[in-house]
Amino acid sequence: MTAIVALLPAPLLIAALALFATRLRVVPVLAAILMGIQCAAAAWAWFPILGTPRRQIVEGIGIDSHGALFVLLTTIVVAAAFVHAVAFFEREKLSEHAPSHRQIGQFYFFASLFLIAMYVVILSDNLGYMWIGMEATTLLSAPLVYFHRSSRSLEATWKYVLICSVGIAFGFFGTAVLYAASQQSGALHVGSLSLAALTTHARQLPPGMVRLGFVFLLLGYGTKAGLFPLHNWLPDAHSEAPAPASAILSGSLLNCALVALWRISDLARAAGQQQVVRATLLPMAVLTVITAALFLLRQRDIKRLLAYSSMENVGIMATAIGLGSWSGFALQAVNHSFCKVAVFLLAGNLLQQCGTKNIRDLRGLLTAQPGRTLLLMLGIAAVAGTPPFGSFLAEWRILSFAADKHMPWVVAGLVLSLAMAFIALAMQSLDMALGNKTIKDPTNVRTRFAVSLVLVPVILLLGSLALGVLLPSSVLALLGGGR
Amino acid sequence: MTPQPHLESNLLYALAICWLVAPGVAVFQKANVDRLLGVILAVGSLILLAMGVAAFAYATTNIALPSPFSFAGIPVAFRFDPLAGLFLCVIAVVTGLTVPYLRGYCSHLTDKADMRIFWTALSALLISMPLVALSANALTFLVAWEAMSLTSAMLIATDHSSHSTRRATIVYLSATRLATAFLASGFLWAHALTASWTFADWHLSGTQALGPGVLVLIGLAVKAGSWPFHIWLPIAHPAAPAPVSALMSGVMVKVAIAAIVRLFVLSPAFNHPVFGIVILTIGAISSVWGILFALIQNDLKRLLAYSTVENVGIILMGVGASSLAAHAGLIVAARIALAASLLHVINHAAFKSGLFLGAGTIDMGTGTRNIELLGGLSKRMKATCACFTLAGAAICGLPPLNGFASEWLLYQGFLGASSGAHTPIERFSFMLLIGILALVGALAMACFVKAIGVAFLGRPRTKAAENAHEGDRGMVASQAAFTVTCIVLGLIPPVLLAVLNPIARVAYPGADSVAAAWTLPTPAMLVTLAVTLLAGAAWMARTKATMPERRYITWECGFGALGPRAQVNGTSFVQPIAHTFSVVFQYAESVSIEGESRRLFPDKVTATSTTEPVLETRLYQPVTSMFGWLGDQILHLQEGSIHAYLLTMLITLLILLAIGGAIQ
Amino acid sequence: MTVLLLLIAYLAHIAFLPLLFIGLVRWVKARLQGRRGPSLLQPFWDIAKLLRKGETISETATSTFRLAPLASLAAILAVALMVPWLGLPSPIAGDLILAIYLLAAGKFCTSLAALDTGSAFGAIGASREAAISVQAEPALLLGLAALASHARDSRFSALLAPGGGEHTIILALLVGAAAWLCAMAELSRMPIDDPTTHLELTMVHEAMVLENSGRSLALIEYAVALKTVLLLGLVSQILLILAGNQTLAFHYVLSIVLLAASAVALAIAETVMVKLSWRRVPNMLSYAIGASALACLLVAMRG
Amino acid sequence: MGEFHLFESGSAVTVIIGLWMIGITRVPTSLTLYGTQSAVLGLMAMYLGVLRAEPLLVIVGVAVIALKGIAAPAYLLFVAHRLDCRRDDGVSIAPPLQFFGALGALALILLLHPLRAALPESSLPSIGMLLLGMIVMITRRLAISQIVGFLVLENGIFLYTIGQPHTMPIVVEIGVLMDVLAGVMLAGLLAFRISREFESIDVTELKELRG
Asked: Residue B629 pLDDT more than 80?
C-alpha cells in the first residue's frame, strides 16, 4: 500500500504550486526538482517489486512487476520532459509568441494531474477505474496540446478530445458488457470488474459476451493507443503540442493504452478466446505498422514524422501484445519511450532555433549544428530500430516469437514495413542534415540551463544503447518475466 | 596445434581498443591529426593481420563475449576458422596499404567535409567488417552487418554538398536495409526450423532449406552487388571518397561473399543443389552484365564500380560451380573451383583497390573523373599511370600478373567439372561457362584498354588534363604497394593455394591438396619473357647511340595538324562492341547533319549515342514510384475532416463486430 | 636432354620459318596475279633494311610506345615455345588458356601503343582489334576447350594427341574451321582486313602499327610473321589429329607440308576474296563461335 | 410493472427520442430533447433501484436527472445562446434523409447475420443508441451538435449498464458521470475558443492539419 502512497505527494505538490504560485518564475525549476524526488520515490518503492511474480490487489489497484515496470518508465519519461522543459520554456520566452507565466503554470498543473491519471490507468486492476483514468488522461492532456493557443493547436485539441472521448465511450460499453458477462458466469453471481477475479473464472464467462466485450474494449483502448483505422488524432496532437508535452504523450500515454490492451487481451486469452485476439488485434497491429511506414514516405513536417514513427512503434508493440509476448512488448516500450522522448526533445530544441517545422526549409543542419544534428540522427536511427540500440533487439524478439509460432504473414508484413519505415526516416532526416546551409544562422543564444537541452537526450539514448548491447537474460527476466 | 582461444580474444579486444581510440583522438584533437590517426589505423590493421593468421594457424575456436555483453539472452559469439582468417587478412592488408594514401587524400577533403565524422566512421567501419566475417550466430552477424552499412553510408556522405552524393547515400542505405530485411526473415525462418541461432548448428537440406536459403541468398546477393541487385553499387561507390570506395569495392563486397561461402558451401547451412545453379547463373549474368555496362561508362569510378560487379560475378561463378560439382560428386573439380573463387577474392581486393586509389589521384590531380575530359596524363602523372596500367593489365587477367592465376584455376575447375559431369546438359553448360568466362575476359581487356588509353595516353583534351599534378608521396606509395602485391601474387599461386587448402578441406574433406592442380609452367614462361625483354632492351639501348631518333607530329593523312579533339574518345572506342551488344543497354546512335543541302560541306555534324540502364528503368523505377504513389494515396486517409475520422471509426467498429460474430 | 634439343629445333625454325612463310605467301599471290613478284627471301631483306634505319617517333608518344613492340614480341615468342605448332612436342609444356591469354597480352601492348600516339587512325585500329578479339578469342578458347574436355586435360600435348573416340574426325574439322576463322581474325587477314590496303580508315592491324618505323617496325613485322606461322601451325596440328598417331619425323614433315599448303591457301584467299565490310565482320565471326559451340555440344553428347 | 417490462418500454422511449433528435435541425430543441431523454433514463434508473432494493441505483438516477437532465443541457443552451447558433443543417445530406439513413443502419444491425450473431438480445437498444449518437456526430456541422451526439452515445451506454441485473459499483458510475461532464465542460470551452478563432463554430472549418 505504501508503494501507491509514495507516488502521490510530488505530483500533487507540483499541481498545488502551479495553481497558486503562478507569478513565481521559479515554478519550472521546482517542478523539475520535485519530479526528481518523484523518480527517487518511485524507484525506492517500485524497483524491488520488479521481476517478482506475486500480485497484490488493494481496493482495485494491482501491485505487480508489470505495473512496476511501467510506473518507473512513466516517471522517468515525465521527469526527463520536466527537466528539459525548464530550458525549453526559457528559450520559448524569447520567441515571438512567448507564453505567459499563467500558461506555463497551467502546463505544469495539468501535466502533474496527467501523471497521476496515468498511474491510475497502469496500476488499476478494476476495469472501471482503468476507464476513468484513461478518460481523465484525455481531458487532462487536452490543455497540454492546446499550449500554443494557435488555430492549429486548437484544431488538434478539438479532434483529440472528440475522437478519444468517442473511442473511450465505446471502451466503457465493452467494460459494461464484460461486467454483464461476469454476472452470468456461475461463480461470480454478483459480477465483478476486477481483472484478477475475471481471469480466475475466465472459463465460465459466456464466450459470445467476452468476444463482444473484447471487440469494444479493443476499439476503445485502440483509439487511445493509435492503432491503424483509429489513429487520425495522433499525428495532429503530437505535432501541435510543445516538445515536452509531445514527449510525454508519445513516451508514456501510448504505453498506458497499450498496457490496458495487454490486460484485455490477456483476459481474452484466459477465457479461451485466443482466436478473436489473433483475428482482430494482430491484423490491426500489422496494418498499423504498414500504414505508418507508408505515411512516413511523404511527410514534410518533422514532428508529424516523429508522430508517425510513434504510430509505427505502437503497431509493433500491439503485435507483441497480439502474440502474447510480454518481454517483447516491455523491451520495445522501454526502448521506444527512451529514444522517442530523446528525439522529440532534440527536435523541439532544433525547431526553436531554426523556427520552422517544414523539412524542405531545414537544410544543411549538419554543417550548422554538427553536435545536435548527429545526436538527432542517432536518435532517429534508434527509433527506426537499427542494431546498436535496444529497439532492434525488441523487434527481433517479437519477430522471432512470431516466426516460432509459424505466422509468416506477420513476419513478412513487419520486416518489410520496418525496412520501408527505416528508408523513409533515413530519406527525410538525411534531407534535413546533409547539403549546404540554407537556413539563416540559427539563433543559438545562450540561455540558463542550456546544457540540459542536450544532457537529457544523451542520457536517454545511452540508456537505450545499453539495453541494445548489455542485455543478458538476467536483465531480461527483470523486465519481462520470461514470456 | 593447441587451440589458443585467449590469444585470439586478446587480439579481438586489442583491435577494439585500438580502433575505438582513433575516433576519440579525431573528435577531441583539434590540430591536424591525420598522421597520428594513420598510425593508429596501421597498428589496427597489423593486429587484424595477426588475428587472421592466428585464425589460420590454430584450430577453429568459438569465442563468446562475457555475460553483460549479450543480445537479449543470445551470446555475442565469434568463430575463428580458416575462412574468417582469410578475409581478416584481406581486410588487414587492404587497410594497411591504404593508410599512407589517406593522409594525402584527406588534405584534399578537409575543406569540403567534417573530418571528425570521416575518421570516426572509418574506424567504426574497420571494426565492423571483421566482426561480420567472424560472427558465429545470426544476431551478431546482423548487428555487425547493419553497423557496417551505417558507417559506410556515413563515409559515402562525407562530401555531402553535392546532390548526387546525397542521392547515393540514400540509395545505398535503402539497398542495404532491404538486404538486412531479407537476411532477417531468412534467419528467422531458419531459427523456426532449427531452434538455434548459431550458423554451425544449421544443417537444413532438401525442401526445408529452400525457404530460408533463398531469402538469405537474396540478402547476401544484394550486398555482394551481384546481377539483379547491383544497381546501388555504381551509384554508391563512385560517390564515396577514393580510399573509402577502395575499401568498399575491395573488401566490403567480399564480406558478403564470405557469408555466402560459409552458409552455402562450407558445412552448408542451406544444402540444396538448386542453390548451386542459382549462384552460378546470377554469377555468370552479373559478370557479363557488369563488364558490358563498365564498357560504356565514361566516369572512371563508375567504370570501376561496374567492373566490381563483373568480378563479383566471376567469384560467384566459382562458388556456384563448386557447390554444383560437389552435389554431382566431382570433389576434385569442386575443390579447385572453390580455391579459384577464394584466390580471385584476394586478387580482386589487390588490383581493384589499386585502381580506385589511382582514380582518386586522377580526381584530385585534375578535378574530374570523366575520361572524355582527360587524356595525356601519363606525361604529368608517370607513377600513377604506371601503377594504373599494371593494375589494369592484372584485372584483365593477363598472364604474368595475379588476375590470370585465379581465372586459369577457374577454367580448370570448369574443365574438370565439364569432363567429369554425368549428364550431357551439365557437361555442355560447364563448357558454355568457359565460353562466357573467355567473353568476359576479352570484354574486360577492351574496357581497360579504353580506360587506360583514353585517360592516360594520347594528347590532353582539356586544360585540366594538361596541367594535372601527381598525388603526393604517400598516395603514390599506396598505389605502388598495391601494384607490387599484384605482381608478387602473380608469381606465387602455388603458395597461395597451399594456404587456401585448409578451407577447401573444410568444405570437401579429402587427402590431396589443391596446390596439386597448379600445372602451369610459370617459371619457364617467365624466363622466356625476361630473356627476350632484357635482350631486346639491351640491344635497343646499344643501337640507340648509333641511330638518331627524329621527333615529328603524329601521322594525320595530310589533313593538317589534327587537334586533340581528333583523338578517339571513350564512347567512340567502344562503339563497335556496344553496337554488337546493343540489345543489353538499348544502345542507339543518331547522327544529325546541318546544312544537308550542301552535300560535301555541311555546317555542323553531331553524332550522339544513347544508352539506357534497362534494369533500373524497366524494373526498379516502376517499383519505387509505385511505393511513392501508395504513400500519396494513403495521405487521403488524413484529409483533416473530423467527420471522415468518425466515419472510419464507425466502419472499423462494424468490421470488428462482423469478425467477432463470425468466429463461432 | 630432349627438352634442350627441342628448344634448339624450335628456336632454329622460329629464326627462319616465319619470314619464309610470308615470302611464300607474297610469291604465290604474285604468281596468281600473273607477276613474277619478289623472291621468297624478300622479307629477310626488308627486316634487315628496317633494322638499320632510324626511327621517327611522334611527339605525343611516351615510353609505352617504345616498349610495346618488344613486349608483344616477347609474349608471342613465349607462346611459340609453348604451342607444338611444328608437330614436335613443344619445349615448354604449354596450356591452351595460358597461350590464348599471352596472345591477348600481346594485343594489350600493341593497342596501348596505338592509343599512345594520339592519332585517330591508331585508336580506331585498336578499337576494331578489341571488337574482333571480343568474338575471336572466346571462339578459339571454346574450340580448344572442347578438345581439352574430350582429352580431359588442358595441356596441348594431351589436347592434340590423336585419341580414339568415334567423333574425332568431325570434332577436329569443326575446331579446325573455328581455329582458321579465328586465325584470320587475329592476324587480320583477308576476309576481315586486307593486309596490303593503304586506306587507313579500313585498316585494323595495319592502323595500329601506322606510327612505327625503323627498328620497332622490324620487330612488329617479325612478331606478326611469327604469330601467323604459330596460329596456322596450330590449325594444321588440329587437322593432323585426323591422321592418327604417326612417327615423330613423319608427323613433322606432314605439319611442314600443311604449313606450306596453308600459305598457298592464304594467297589464294587474298587474290580471290573481297574484304568484308566492317559491319559484317561480327556476323562472319559468329560462324567461328557457332563451330566451337557445336564442337562442345558434340563432346558433351558423347554419352 | 415487471422489471423487464419497465426496462423494455423505457429503452423504447429513449431510442424514439434519439431518432426524433436526428430529424430536427434547430439546436435548442435538440438540447431540450437530450435533457428529456436523460431525465427518462434517470427516472428509469430510480424506479429500477427501488424494484431491486438497491439504494445506490436510486442515488445514481437522481444524479443523472440533476446533472445530465438539467445541468448539461442548460450549460449547452447558454453556450449556444452566447454563440447565437440556431440552425444546424448538417454536412451534406438533409436531416430528413439522415433520419431514414439512421433507420436503415438500425435495420442493418438487426438483419446482417454476423453482426446479429455477435450482439446479445439485451444490448440491442443500447447499440442502436450508440449508432444514433455516431450518426449525429458524423452528419452535424456545429461543435455543439457534435457534443450532443457524444452525449446521446453516452446515454446509450448508460442505458445498457442499468439494464443488467446488478448495477456497477457506485464509485465507477459516479466517476463515469464526472468524466462525461468534465468532457462536456471542456468541449464547451473549446467551442468558445473555436468561435473566437474561426468566427463560427462550424467544425468543417477545421481543415488545416492534413497529411
From this structure: yes
Residue spans per domain, chain D: 3-205
Domain ranges for chain A, please list them.
2-480
**Which pLDDT does position A189 carry in this prediction?**
66
Retrieve residue A4's grid coordinates.
Answer: 501507491
Q: CB–CB of B639 and D210 under 8 A? A: yes
Mark yes or no for CB contact B638/D115 under 8 Å.
Answer: no
Which of A465-478 are b and which e, b meaning 16 or more Cβ less than 10 Å from the residue's Cβ?
A: bebbbebbeebbee
Instruction: Tell me the average pLDDT across B373-388.
Output: 91
CA distance B444 to B396: 5
Relative to beta strand A61-63, strand A56-58 is antiparallel
The three three-digit cell numbers of residue A20, written as one number: 497558486
Query: Under the phi-then-psi rule, with left for phi > 0, alpha for psi from -120 to 50, and beta for the rest, what region is A459?
Result: alpha
pTM of this structure: 0.92
| Side-chain-facing half-sphere of A102: CA atoms under 13 Å | 1
In whole angstroms, give the CA distance from residue B342 to residue B257: 9
**Whole-number percent of chain B with pLDDT over 70:** 97
- CA C17 to CA C87: how far, in whole Å? 14
Candidates A154, A183, A188, A276: best to mutate against D (most CBs of D within 10 A) is A154
**What CA–CA distance (Å, rounded) separates C47 from C51?**
6
Nearest to A262, CA basis, from A59, A74, A43, A483: A483
- Which one-letter DSSP state was computed for residue B603? S
User: Is the separation of the CB atoms in C204 and C112 below 8 Å?
Assistant: no
C-alpha distance across the termini of chain D, in Å: 56
How far is residue A288's CA from residue A310's CA, in Å, rounded to a whole number? 11
Chains B and A touch (3+ CB pairs under 8 A): yes
Please state, in angstroms and as integers, the Cα–Cα distance from residue B353 to each residue in B95, B237, B251, following that order: 10, 12, 9
Nearest CB among A155, A165, A209 relative to D120 is that of: A209
3-state secondary structure of D39: helix
Q: Which of the residues B162, B185, B650 would you substitute to probe the A interface, choosing the one with the greatest number of A C-beta atoms within 10 Å?
A: B185
Looking at residue A423, its amino acid is I
The pLDDT tens digits for B164-205 are 999 999 999 999 999 999 999 999 999 999 989 999 889 988
Q: Does residue A382 contact residue A458 with C-beta atoms inside 8 Å? A: no
Q: Are strands B77-80 and A56-58 parallel, antiparallel or unpaired?
A: unpaired
What DSSP assignment string belongs to D72-104?
A: HHHHHHHHHHHTT--B---SSS-HHHHHHHHHH
D206 vs B contacts (CB less than 8 Å): 640, 642
Domain locations in chain C as residue ranges: 2-300
Round to whole Å and give the CA distance between A299 and A302.
Answer: 8
Q: Compute the distance between CA of residue A366 and CA of residue D172 in angstroms, rounded to an integer.
A: 54
Do the Cβ atoms of A400 and B191 come closer than 8 Å?
yes
Please report residues of B whose CB lies closer than 8 A to that of A229.
648-649, 651-652
Chain C and chain A touch, per 3+ beta carbon pairs within 8 A:
no
User: Could you report the predicted ipTM of this complex, rounded to two decimals?
Assistant: 0.90
For residue C188, give the nearest of C203, C169, C170, C173 by alpha carbon. Answer: C203
Amino acid at residue number B303? L
Taking the Cβ of residue B561 and every Cβ of chain D, the question of whether any pair is shorter than 8 Å is answered with no
Please give the C-alpha separations between residue C154 and each of B351, C161, D201, in angstroms, as whole numbers: 27, 12, 91
- Classify strands B204-205 and B270-271 as parallel, antiparallel or unpaired: parallel
What rounded mean pLDDT belongs to chain C? Answer: 89
Could you report how far apart the first and last alpha carbons of chain A are, in Å?
A: 27
Instruction: Find cell 566516369 and name the residue.
Output: B299
Whether B156 shows a pLDDT value over 50: the answer reads yes
Tell me, yes or no, whether chains D and A touch by having 3 or more C-beta pairs under 8 A. Answer: yes
